[in-house]
């Protein structure tokens, strides 16, 4: 799962379609001088073909439903543009291998690079290398250690996920005295997990009737979700709500819950998997909501890369350049809006 930093301004987008609506922008000095778009030129969000652009795409191995959806969104978005060629590498969780793949794309002289690094800090130098070679970089989700290593950053809001989950649960339990909640987190070694947990704790401060009574960290897998959830259920005979950071591990968590015959609490997931949305729509389990961390960001990264390659701005913005940073909004999906978001759910 992705690791991000809450850097700069936040930019709200809805994950309703593969093309995100960008609502704010900042500026960042690119490594190579770009020719501003004339006001009468079509924006990158338009479907009218522009000059040919080759986009190099390098991401980690798709060993998780969200990462597989990242690759799928990038490919399908690129296919919508007749003038875009996507040169996509074979995903790898080996840092050295991914650095080599990016260097190969640099040597091919692609027009723009989209990089979702296995480790943002470890790949910062190769991002800098690309920028210095005059190839602008779209840094996707896991952020580089230096803003000079990318022209534009686009990613999710991990802290915001925690806040959204906490506020949703808080509103559901605000009338209950001495309410208890538990948390099934991701990998504690990751900054993203710490950010999600901090956002959740901060949101719960607004609800003095609610106490966080237990927390377990899992590994973003079905197996770990089931094992850690079983431990939580054994330790906590009674509680009112569960926030699970990740819908993939949530599949295992739900198995443990069903095996224990527990129905006495509500469960909020994270990321926006189709399995979670199907459960929300069916409304026959403890799963009542999920907080989005939309993989459609990869499709938006292709839009941004196309814009850079064609020296265009973004539809809906007055600026002649693309933003320097885009952070997606962590929307809550429940039974009131699940039909709207269901097409974006990933397997």
Automatic annotation (TrEMBL):
<dbReference type="GO" id="GO:0030246">
    <property type="term" value="F:carbohydrate binding"/>
</dbReference>
<dbReference type="InterPro" id="IPR028082">
    <property type="entry name" value="Peripla_BP_I"/>
</dbReference>
<feature type="region of interest" description="Disordered">
    <location>
        <begin position="29"/>
        <end position="51"/>
    </location>
</feature>
<feature type="domain" description="Periplasmic binding protein">
    <location>
        <begin position="55"/>
        <end position="310"/>
    </location>
</feature>
<keyword id="KW-0732">Signal</keyword>
<dbReference type="InterPro" id="IPR025997">
    <property type="entry name" value="SBP_2_dom"/>
</dbReference>
<protein>
    <submittedName>
        <fullName>ABC transporter substrate-binding protein</fullName>
    </submittedName>
</protein>
<dbReference type="Pfam" id="PF13407">
    <property type="entry name" value="Peripla_BP_4"/>
</dbReference>
<dbReference type="GO" id="GO:0030313">
    <property type="term" value="C:cell envelope"/>
</dbReference>
<dbReference type="InterPro" id="IPR006311">
    <property type="entry name" value="TAT_signal"/>
</dbReference>
<comment type="similarity">
    <text>Belongs to the bacterial solute-binding protein 2 family.</text>
</comment>
